[in-house]
Amino acid sequence: MEPTDSTRRGSLTDEQRAILSNQAAADHPQPVDFGLTHDDMRIHDLASFGRSGLKYKEANKWFGLKLYLAIWFVVYALGFAIFATLHDIPGGWTWNNEHAVSMFLLGMLTPGFFPGIFVFGLALHAIFNSYESHRRRHPSAGVLAYREAFRMHRSYLAATHEAELALQRQKQSYWERLNGYEFERETAEVLKRHQFNPKVTRGSADGGVDIEVTKGGRKGVVQCKAHVARVAPATVRDLFGVMHHSNSDFGIIVSLGGFTKGAIEFAKSKPIFLLDCSDLIAMQEGQDILAKNFPVDPTP
Length: 300
Description:
alpha/beta, Trna Endonuclease, Chain: A, domain 1, 11 helices, 8% strand
């Protein structure tokens, strides 16, 4: 049975089906496509939206330094003006007074002189915090568009995951609807696809064997459990006894409900192979789950 695309999306909501039809949501949005820089991502807490390998718009490398110097000069000039108002020097604070000019330039070279590095640092910190706070409260169109694109991308991933789960449930329900004999027959068809040469046994006198198989010159027996209960160790031990009684080289148990931990432990290091519903589906789709247990002889 090959599920169709309509089957794949049958249990999805209209919104999920719509998002899966939107190919633009399939790819992870790149900040560069929205004119965003790394600084934009940081200020608006968008870093958690991204992943390694994101591409950003190239920022003005000198913008920060220019802004820093401009703010520094404004703060310094204000501080110097206050200082000059409160302190007199011979000749007055004029450009014709060499002593006044020297004092001004000395202050320019040593920011802590006028009005003090502490005051400057506080002012600079306050200005930058105010600037970033304003940007957070008033995100640009590019930031809003990136947020929406990333929301759609996450919705696309969630819808894709749900579609895969729906498809898996549909595949599993196909096997769960079969009665005991139909389950054995369909299991035989799957094994035949992987060159096991199966023969379904009939009646109650099958000695605990539902399917007889041969592969690569080896003889095997198969038991099919078409119920949702997990197979216990006793079932595996019984099959092991059947293998010896029938001189079989290997055994296979196929169970819709899976296997208990004890059953799995007992089958280890023995030529007993356990297949659950997901294994059946994989083999039905062409994956040879048991290939490692039946290596091809390289000799002709």
